[in-house]
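re: the backbone from monday

yeah here it is again, tokenized this time
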């Protein structure tokens, strides 16, 4: 059983929703990333989503675009990101790590070589934003051969057939994008997301994580009431950006965003269980 499947099974048994923070590898300096990953786990993260810096992150809003720019100033590339995962694994063998990025760096490395390197580093899942299931068969096959889950993005416009294709080719969890647009936008309708998650669950056995628009602890708790995972990107990356000129403070202070969300999610879960 994969680390992702083991993680979600354990959380389900405890009645707990996964908290998945996203950070861009190498932001604002490469040396910050691995200590920050460990600090996020200590703050309550169940899975880590590590962004591979890319020069044209078309699905991302200004916050994560800026994070990519800061990382790229230090020439952080896919090989460096895999090295960070290897370093993280030297002290943590249990927390799943998902790489999120775009297809170009993987294609440059080659699907087979990437899958081998990712498995060796200890990567558990790969989400390639611009590679839909209809076009991802070769990458899926390469990753499957190394027991790495391919994670797909479902949108409000994804119909039943597409969700089923994502489930057939994917693994780990299904990432539901809570609204049409880019990361960091501020227009989340929790009721509409609840309805969409229920619709998606009718067509997949994979856990369903919700991302985009999770901007504070209150919203994280509301989403945790019905989703299998709460995925947090821009809220955390914004805090990293605020501390970018004082990187020594990032590891100590940025994870507080996640700790606050974890506390709110668990408190709401306790109330729900009591009722």
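seq for it, each position gets an aa:
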């Amino acid at each position: 059983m994969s680390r992702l499947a083991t993680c979600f099974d354990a959380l389900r048994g405890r009645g707990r929703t996964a908290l998945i923070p996203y950070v861009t590898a190498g932001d604002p300096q490469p040396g910050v990333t691995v200590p920050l990953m460990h600090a996020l786990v200590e703050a309550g993260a169940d899975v880590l989503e590590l962004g591979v810096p890319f020069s044209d992150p078309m699905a991302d809003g200004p916050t994560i675009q800026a994070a990519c720019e800061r990382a790229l100033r230090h020439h952080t590339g896919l090989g460096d990101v895999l090295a960070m995962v290897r370093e993280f694994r030297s002290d943590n063998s249990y927390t799943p790590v998902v790489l999120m990025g775009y297809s170009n760096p993987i294609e440059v490395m080659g699907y087979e070589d990437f899958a081998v390197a990712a498995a060796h580093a200890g990567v558990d899942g790969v989400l390639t934003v611009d590679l839909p299931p209809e076009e991802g068969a070769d990458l899926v096959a390469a990753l499957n051969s190394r027991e790495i889950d391919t994670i797909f993005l479902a949108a409000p416009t994804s119909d039943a057939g597409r969700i089923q294709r994502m489930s057939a080719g994917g693994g780990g969890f299904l990432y539901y994008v809570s609204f049409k647009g880019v990361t960091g936008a501020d227009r989340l309708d929790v009721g509409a997301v609840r309805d969409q998650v229920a619709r998606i669950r009718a067509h997949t056995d994979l856990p369903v994580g919700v991302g985009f628009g999770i901007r504070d602890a209150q919203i994280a708790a509301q989403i945790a009431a019905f989703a299998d995972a709460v995925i947090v990107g821009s809220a955390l990356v914004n805090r990293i950006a605020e501390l970018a000129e004082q990187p020594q403070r990032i590891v100590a202070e940025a994870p507080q965003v996640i700790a606050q969300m974890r506390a709110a999610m668990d408190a709401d879960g306790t109330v729900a269980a009591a009722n």
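The first strand starts at residue 18 and ends at 24. The CA atoms of residues 2 and 121 lie 15 Å apart.
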